[in-house]
Amino acid sequence: MSTLQTIQQQMLQAVLAERTLPPHIVLGDDIADASSRLDVYRHGYRIRLRDALKVEFAGLQCMAGSRFEGMLDKYVEAHPSEHYNIRWYGSGLAGFLEYAHPWREKPQLANMAKMDWAISTAFDAADESSMGVADLSAVPPESWAGLRLTLQNNLQVLECAYNTDAFRRATDNGSKRPHLRRFAQPRQVLVWRRATTVHYRRLDDDEWLVLGASIQGETFASLCARLAACHGESAAMPRMVTVLKRWLEAGLIRGWDLA
Amino acid sequence: MTPSSATRPGSLPYLGYGLGLRVEHYEALLANPGKVEWLEVVSENYMVSGGLPLVWLDRFRERFPLVMHGVSLSIGSADPLDEDYLARLAALAKRVEPAWVSDHLCWTGVQGVNLHDLMPLPYTEEALEHVVNRVKRVQDVLKRRILLENVSSYVTFADSQLTEWEFLAAVAERADCLILLDINNVHVSAKNHGFSSLDYLRGIPVSRVQQFHLAGYEQGERLIIDTHNAPVSNAVWDLYMEAVRRFGRISTMIERDDNFPPLAELMAELEHARALAEPLLQDAA
Ligand SMILES: [Fe+2]
């Protein structure tokens, strides 16, 4: 007589193993032997996890092409699920592609997986309200130097050495698979959600400079100083206004306070 | 004899004929609810922090009575109950105020690993006591009786001492919970294990059954597989009529999880269920 715990552990090991004899705890009969019975669970486990990943990693599927299925198979064999919601099973895929041979030789794959996952997590992140241009008119003119912006918590920035976002875009638009291109300098891709729609776009280099500084809690005066260092004193303020308007229109800003 | 709702423990409402809510049918169902009287939502799909899933949930909540159906409670697991899961489930139930909350009589993982499957239990006295204690705990946290559903199964454990229906009936009686009887799963398991589906129905206490599931399966090489990707089979319609004769007026719904047809086809299946059940219920009354 086995305990409930032993039975479940043996059953679990038998399902996770790619091939193994059924444990003696499972009965076979005239309808089907123990192996074919166990195979229903083994097969179902793998199909379910792979199907769940396919939903979340559309960009990776586009980029990896015919290698995609094999990649998922290896991840499934290497990583048992630890989440009660199967949707979260993909949280480890980018990490897996970063260290597992042969995919680690192609870092664009892990990067693509990261972007897909960022889009996926933004989709059902906590709701947040966003601020419009009118809300900033409440800031007294003499206080602007000390203004600090509070950005959306769901906002994520990914460093990309390749045109990773183009693969996701091609999938989302149903357009042709792009060619892989390595950037001369890594670019930053912003992922965020506005109301119920997830967006992503490349950041201009100077925009990333001030967005990153904003996330760190730097004041408006300090953001302007950073732009002045790039573009010169006279160009800094108009550029700051352009960038700020863009952020407000995209719903990136949740609120403000004064340093 | 049709038991009246007053004789049912806890007397939950009778909801009529419903469907499992799936994202594939969101738009169509809001545009034309037809004769769909209630919806069953998969709890885990809405146990999220925000975004579109909860927006849709609120829209349906305004239009239909809802019940919550979970797949990850893992009531039979040897692992401790996942208190975080339970807290989130309770929070969702507070938001939705469903007519009832259900999950499955199964385990979904052990040792912290989740198989995302409805694994059958060994039908032993030890497992029975374990499940009963956990159902009581869950009912305390949720402050309501839960429904447990019979699963389709493909293995039998050498250690089982009870039949599946004896086990299910004993859980319901001892833990004072209710039963979601999946007619298709009774049929699938009966075929796969060679028992009588009528014996199964006769072994289930009438007063404990609160809901029926109907679904389709796939014929495998030797076993039949509960895939929810096909129309309800003739054998399951026959068994459904037997179940209506035995259990009376029970809230009934159709589950489809794959190979989605247009909503109208599911609605037609649901009307077929109504057309089969209502004359039997009239006769009984
Ligand atoms: Fe079911």
Automatic annotation (TrEMBL), chain A:
<dbReference type="Pfam" id="PF09836">
    <property type="entry name" value="DUF2063"/>
</dbReference>
<dbReference type="InterPro" id="IPR018640">
    <property type="entry name" value="DUF2063"/>
</dbReference>
<protein>
    <submittedName>
        <fullName>DUF2063 domain-containing protein</fullName>
    </submittedName>
</protein>
<feature type="domain" description="Putative DNA-binding">
    <location>
        <begin position="7"/>
        <end position="97"/>
    </location>
</feature>
From TrEMBL, chain B:
<protein>
    <recommendedName>
        <fullName>UPF0276 protein DWU99_12055</fullName>
    </recommendedName>
</protein>
<dbReference type="InterPro" id="IPR036237">
    <property type="entry name" value="Xyl_isomerase-like_sf"/>
</dbReference>
<dbReference type="InterPro" id="IPR007801">
    <property type="entry name" value="MbnB/TglH/ChrH"/>
</dbReference>
<comment type="similarity">
    <text>Belongs to the UPF0276 family.</text>
</comment>
<dbReference type="Pfam" id="PF05114">
    <property type="entry name" value="MbnB_TglH_ChrH"/>
</dbReference>
